[in-house]
Amino acid sequence: MGTVSVIEGHDAVHTIQVRGRVEAETSVSLRQALVTTMLHRQAAAVLVDLGGVTEMDPMAVGALSAAHDVARDLHLAFTVRVAQSPIAGQLATVDLPLSP
C-alpha cells in the first residue's frame, strides 16, 4: 500500500509526496490531498512528487490529470516529479507537466 503526505513549503508551494504502490485506496487519498491542497490551503504552486512510487492505479493517473486541469483553471503552477520512478513511462502518455 502507498502513502500520501502533504508538505507545506515556503511561499505557498505545497508538495504532495506519494510513495509505494498506489492502488485504489491510495488513489482516494491522493485525490483528497490534491483537492484540499488546491482549493482549501491556498497554495500558489503544487508539486506532486512521485519519485518513490513503484506502481500506479489508473484512478490515480486520472486524479492527477483532473488536478492538472483544475490547477490550470485556478492559475496554479502544477508539476509532477517522476525522477527515478518506474511509472515515468506510464505517465509520459498523459498530458501532465512532468519534471525529472
TrEMBL record:
Ranges that cross the membrane:
none
The name this protein goes by in its record: STAS domain-containing protein
Source taxon at top rank: Bacteria
Which residue range or ranges hold the STAS domain?
3-64
